[in-house]
Amino acid sequence: MRNLRQVLSWFWLETDRKDKLKMLSNSEIHAFRRDGFVVVPGMCDVAAVRNIADWTDEVLHWPESPGRHMVYYEDSLIAPADRVVSRIENFCPYHAGFDALMQKGMLIDAISQLMGEPAILFKEKINMKMPGGDGFKAHQDAQAGWNVYADYHVTALVSIDAATPENGCLEMAAGWHNRGLIGDEWRPLDDGDGSEVVYRSCPTQPGDVVFFDSYAPHRSAPNLTAAPRRVLYITYNRLSDGDHRAQYYADKRNSFPPDIERDAGKEYVFRV
After folding, report:
1. Is the pLDDT of residue 11 over 80?
2. Per-residue pLDDT tens for 57-67?
3. Among residues 74, 72, 106, which one has the least CA distance to residue 91?
4. Percent of the chain having pLDDT more than 70?
5. Which CATH class is domain 4-254?
6. What are phi and psi of 2, to 5 degrees?
7. Structural domain boundaries of the chain?
8. In angstroms, how far is CA 133 from the centroid of its own chain?
């Protein structure tokens, strides 16, 4: 059952939508098309960031149960004997606030601007990057087999905490998105094609949003600081390409289930 706080948060997001809406400028749209990404400082205001941070804490402390939201863990690089939460996915259907944030208002409207047509939610995750959390090798999101669902996606990264080079902020490569896949599926770009790509750090403050193309190469370093670096990733595809969210998570649960659903001793390889 939705608690009162979630319902009130949803009401705030919906009733204030017209007042809070911030459409992208022509220069921001131009930068996205030129570079494959654009950083929009302060797109989410202080109240919105506070809500998102509170909701993230709520989701992090939900009891885990099979068939519901998906929690993944990793070994800490600081204390290898410890397991820390790496990311949480598929939580939108169970949280009214996140559902409203992702499917109504400025983020999906901005994505629709960038796509040139209405967008629809494809997937969502919170990368916790706890102290000792690992980074992500260079890749294009399109390398992850998303083309079986739709051929083009755009992601909105919403910074919950300050992201810096020290705690593993996003690093993007400008201008490579127009070249299609520059490497093989399921292989980091640094391991072959794309080794010549130059990345630049994109540090962000809470409330900043980074929009990036599914063909834009990106990566991040580990978080070896003492504080988490939480980031919300919301990915969309064109509405005209169909609603694939349910099938995506069904496929992912089958091939790469959350830790609580795994069989002991079985090796799982991420495929979707």
Report:
1. no
2. 999 999 999 99
3. 72
4. 90
5. mainly beta
6. -65, 130
7. 4-254
8. 16
